[in-house]
């Protein structure tokens, strides 16, 4: 018996040679298999079909998969090990990752700079000519930490295990360095990289910088350190970047990270006379509202529903995902990314589906799913379950209640907001009418604006500091009050109120 076995991946035509006993989770992520629950065996996101070989059925699979699915060969990749040669059917897809091509005013300087948006799900890097402001290259990837869970709390829980934090830190530093090296290699510029600016939420900040995240696993969820972190590219082993200075911008408090500070810079909230808001509806829901006088921010325990995590047939907004659901002339119509057969539903599709379900009476304002059999098929075989509706209710209630709390702290209400920006990929693609229909964003549609990747734009702006340098960040942070929603009086009552969907809306 040899120490190695082979895994054939169909229809990719790839054959992997791995050590006998290797967990499938360790090798299949790079080939398109997702692990939304971090490999805990509590979701269906990592399904693969056994074509040849043997994978014993585990108790978790008996709970998650139907008898018919098991007999057809479906298994959970997170439960399997390659103890002998296998042939598996998997589906690979391309992920849409949001970059930024905004123009902005700046003071020219010499050299090249790199802006990095280190998101929970995606990682985007841009190489910038600091003399012209032109973007010379873009590289993006799925955050390699996703294999350990789709949301920040899954990462925190994994990190407190023996060696977990080290693995997560090494994974993201390695991938970031790989993308930056690729940018530099393919750039048509000879000037050296002088600076790299990174933004991300607090968990990403701490894991990247090697800071203990254990305090983020329990109340009061306050990090050990969340300020500006500076090192050199050479310290990280990023040889192509030479001795460039690497700055991870400071977070704003709790789970509100420097990605939101980047959003403040991008929207110029800190310079605005009118009160504006910014909501990042990613796996970690972050909100900030205010103007040049005062700002308030908070993070919400929204969970990963907006990116379709913990949704029975959820997936990222990529090939095969139902991205839009609507009714035309009494018919239910869906748009599928990539113009292929549907294989799952992403966050924007889920919001549309629930909005349509409310109008059709398939979903009651209480959130009860009225469909026979406990599932509503929107595009065969993609169906919405009662648990899916509840996940979206929990997420939208957290965001809606958080907005109310922040506006109340600033002495105003929804009517006092001049403009609301929706940041990130989900915010860019979600149908604003659907978001309003389910009670997620209770603002007039005309003031709600998709803002693109404000975190990345903010990181680019930080490559061009003013004469005050990092003092800019200090002054901005001094004007921002971080609010812990869990400790805020009245939040729980608001949260319960916001769980309910609005009643029927004609038209």
Explain how this protein is built.
The protein has 507 residues and is of the alpha/beta class. It has a domain at 4-89: Ubiquitin-like (UB roll), CATH 3.10.20. The protein is 27% helix and 24% strand. The protein is built from 14 helices and 24 strands. The protein has helices spanning 25-28, 59-64, 67-71, 152-159, 164-186, 202-209, 258-267, 347-360, 386-409, 424-429, 432-437, 454-461, 471-478, 491-498; strands spanning 4-10, 14-19, 22-23, 47-52, 74-76, 81-82, 86-89, 112-118, 122-129, 135-142, 193-200, 229-232, 245-248, 276-280, 285-290, 295-300, 321-328, 331-336, 344-345, 375-379, 382-385, 419-423, 448-452, 480-482. The strands form six sheets. Strands 10-9-8-11-13-12 form a six-stranded mixed β-sheet, sandwiched between helices. A six-stranded mixed β-sheet has the order 23-22-14-15-16-24, with helices on both faces. The longest helix is centred in the C-terminal third of the chain and has 24 residues, at 386-409. The relative contact order is 0.11. The model has no long low-confidence stretch (mean pLDDT 88).
Précis, in short:
With 507 residues, this protein is α/β, with parallel strands linked by helices.
Topology:
Elements: E1 4-10, E2 14-19, E3 22-23, H1 25-28, E4 47-52, H2 59-64, H3 67-71, E5 74-76, E6 81-82, E7 86-89, E8 112-118, E9 122-129, E10 135-142, H4 152-159, H5 164-186, E11 193-200, H6 202-209, E12 229-232, E13 245-248, H7 258-267, E14 276-280, E15 285-290, E16 295-300, E17 321-328, E18 331-336, E19 344-345, H8 347-360, E20 375-379, E21 382-385, H9 386-409, E22 419-423, H10 424-429, H11 432-437, E23 448-452, H12 454-461, H13 471-478, E24 480-482, H14 491-498
Helix pairs in contact: 4-5, 7-12, 9-14
């Amino acid at each position: 018996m040899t120490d190695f076995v082979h895994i054939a991946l169909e229809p990719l035509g790839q054959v992997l040679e791995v050590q006998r006993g290797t967990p499938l989770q360790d090798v299949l992520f790079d080939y398109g298999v997702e692990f939304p629950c971090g490999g805990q065996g509590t979701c269906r996101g990592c399904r693969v079909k056994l074509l040849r070989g043997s994978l014993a059925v585990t108790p978790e699979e008996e709970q998650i998969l139907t008898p018919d699915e098991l007999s057809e060969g479906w298994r959970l990749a997170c439960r399997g090990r390659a103890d002998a040669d296998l042939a598996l059917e998997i589906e690979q897809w391309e992920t849409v990752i949001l970059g930024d091509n905004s123009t902005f005013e700046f003071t020219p300087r010499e050299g090249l700079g790199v802006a990095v948006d280190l998101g929970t799900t995606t990682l985007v890097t841009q190489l910038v000519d600091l003399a012209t402001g032109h973007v010379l290259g873009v590289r993006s990837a799925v955050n390699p930490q996703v294999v350990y869970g789709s949301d920040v709390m899954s990462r925190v829980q994994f990190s407190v295990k023996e060696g977990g934090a080290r693995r997560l830190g090494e994974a993201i530093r390695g991938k970031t360095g790989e993308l930056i090296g690729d940018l530099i290699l393919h750039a048509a510029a000879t000037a050296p990289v002088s600076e790299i600016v990174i933004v991300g939420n607090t968990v990403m900040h701490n894991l990247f910088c090697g800071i203990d995240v254990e305090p983020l696993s329990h109340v009061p969820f306050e990090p050990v350190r969340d300020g500006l972190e500076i090192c050199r590219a050479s310290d990280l082993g990023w040889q192509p970047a030479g001795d460039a200075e690497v700055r991870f911008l400071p977070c704003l408090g709790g789970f509100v990270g420097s990605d939101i500070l980047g959003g403040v810079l991008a929207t110029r909230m800190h310079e605005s006379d009118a009160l504006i808001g910014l909501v990042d509806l990613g796996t970690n829901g972050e909100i900030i509202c205010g103007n040049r006088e005062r700002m308030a921010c908070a993070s919400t325990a929204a969970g990963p529903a907006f990116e379709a995590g913990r949704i029975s047939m959820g997936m990222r907004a990529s090939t095969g995902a139902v991205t839009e659901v609507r009714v035309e002339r009494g018919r239910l119509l869906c748009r599928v990314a990539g113009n292929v057969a549907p294989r799952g539903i992403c966050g924007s599709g889920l919001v549309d589906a629930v909005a349509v379900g409310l109008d059709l009476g398939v979903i009651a304002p209480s959130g009860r799913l009225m469909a026979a059999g406990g599932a509503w098929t929107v595009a065969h075989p993609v169906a919405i379950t009662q648990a899916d509706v509840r996940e979206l209710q929990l997420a939208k209630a957290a965001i809606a209640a958080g907005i109310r709390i922040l506006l109340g702290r600033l002495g105003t209400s929804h009517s006092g907001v001049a403009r609301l920006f929706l940041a990130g990929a989900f915010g860019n693609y979600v149908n604003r009418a659907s978001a309003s229909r389910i009670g997620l964003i209770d603002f007039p549609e005309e003031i709600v604006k998709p803002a693109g990747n404000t975190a990345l734009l903010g990181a680019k702006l930080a490559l061009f500091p003013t004469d005050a340098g990092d003092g800019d960040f200090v002054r901005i942070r001094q004007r921002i009050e971080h609010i812990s929603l869990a400790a805020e009086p009245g939040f729980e009552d608001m949260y319960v109120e916001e769980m309910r969907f609005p009643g029927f809306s004609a038209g």
